[in-house]
């Protein structure tokens, strides 16, 4: 990477000395992603020079590659003359343009839209209307399409013409006279076909497409299974509207897995650049909610106060039983969230009964182990048995809760990943204590 | 999907009635992935017919798309004549062939290797040697390369010739006389260039490549940032060895995120098709280990037995303090694992100090809330203060453990995702109880 760093120094020097031609020749050689990395390290003054040195098209190509939050990009755009910002937005791929415009306040949105070309305004407005996390919100309109009656040589001409604008030129989508999607031809097919062949005769009519209102999670799953580089998006009537490219699919896969992961931990892991203050503010509401829920467990133990006074040995095993049940419940939760979100597996009774049965086996084994340990330690196998029975029951209930709760949330339309691990642990504390003290009360005479 | 189901019925009928031509015309029209889905639903008898009806090349194309475990594919191969299996393995992309051969026992491996073409044997043997989870293990050797001195029109001929064999024809890698990678040309570049132009003059010399021993996680990160469809793999001396395609990168991203997720839950979420018995057997070792660790918490509470006898009210808040600290520690753990694995961020002191500071803020706020609740509830603000101070200290320690432990594991070369959420919770139970009872002992006189 040393070579690149030296290059970067040369680029910065050219910029600082206002050597426009030198800067352009060096900076434009970089990969767009490297351009964004370098750009992000510049001062406001350096950035203002770049806005003059590069064309809107060159800036748009770079802006397409930003991997930062939309709000950061909006910050850059607002540093420029509004017309330049609007020009950059028109040069970018529509899906990225729409992502950025969608995060702007209404006044800015109106300003930039007014400065964009009329045909683009209509397109952008249309895309802004699609619901988040659907095909419509992910797709771009820069694809290559061709009429079924055209020839291979025409197709090649169209691709050559659109090569610099289309987001992916590997697939050529075939439309009928009503602009409905009826087939696909790959660039590979075109290259090995006779130049005079009619597209209709060489196209693959088994074109896989998604509906504009399809959920992004299902689309990502399909693209992965079929190893597509892009997938076409059609209206419910078969009209071709756009394409979703593999780079956006990867972002979806990442977003969905980060959501599942965040849910399990009860913390948003995408907020990794936070200061301690902001992190605390984001985490506290959930922790305090769980603290209040935890108070009901404390209240329950308080309710059994006389039991604990009579047999203080019971206090010794509270955290062991709640902890073990919490661990088992978290495992069930993780499996359930994964099954629901990744595999779209909704054979729910099968999932729940599997987890409960697993809980019975795990619970029985753990109970056996703990009964023996406690029995020998305290020379009291009835105490051991009470702990064992309570632990088994607590584990089964925790497994039931861990698998049932995300399924219920999925049913009522809430993302099951919200049923976080900490929530299941805290809930399982309550049920575990209830089970434990109820069992202990029955055998109180033998415990003291 | 109705149409496809009817198609499937027609295909199955053709197969069952041994109508070879009809079967071929219908089955080969399906996308390879759909072929695998249908194939997987067939009986052994139906499969044995398919092995006769399709060519090794056609079977190889389908086998390339299998998304099932390698052992399942090996099962299919072993149903066939060994020569057919070897032919299919030679027709498949080398990375997939190697994945399958790598899972075979030595006898089978020797059998199939002996039946494969000599040049392929050497290549496969070489690839089998690369370490798991490195570029070498992911790459395929079916790429398109060209000498720097050739022209655009020669390049187009080469691509046309290799179109059906190469895994991706979108990038053409440019080699010097020593077979070292010196540039890249996209098909897009070729299509818009003069046919007589020399490759060297139109190539992009800023070709991004990875070393054959690079870690798959870092490669996946780069491919995502740069939005590549494939990345070339070179030896430490710059010799071109293969390419890694985007579909394999997606599998890496998925594998790594499943590992992080599994770690957080203390359960392998990839084992989702398990019976309760197998699930229990996989989960029990970890749960029993944590149970034993939990016993030390029980032992500690037992050590403070006289304290609990004197002030049984202390038992009421054990699970509240351990639970809240466990929740906070799990949040820190999730952030730390994510920072280490996704962002490759190893500014460790910054991470730890951030988490500890967050713990102080969260701990102080939770302490304030719980002091007030307990103070009013029990009309005893000293008791409230004891619970509050203990909770704050327990949270800070849990946050420290949650961020420090995965970092320590990363240092000693263990995947930090193994530092599971349940482990942190159980460990935090121990430290929380120690803090709680130590603080309580100081204020014992005021608690009863």
From TrEMBL, chains A, B:
What is the annotated signal peptide range for this record? Answer: none
GO CC annotations, alphabetized: plasma membrane
Give the UniProt keywords, A-Z.
Answer: CBS domain, Cell membrane, Magnesium, Membrane, Metal-binding, Transmembrane, Transmembrane helix, Transport
- Which positions fall inside the CBS domain? 139-201, 203-259
- Residue stretches spanning the membrane: 284-301, 313-335, 356-377, 383-409, 430-447
Could you state a single Gene Ontology molecular function term? metal ion binding
PANTHER family, per the entry: MAGNESIUM TRANSPORTER MGTE
Q: Which family does it belong to?
A: Belongs to the SLC41A transporter family.
Put simply, this protein is called Magnesium transporter MgtE
Gene label: mgtE
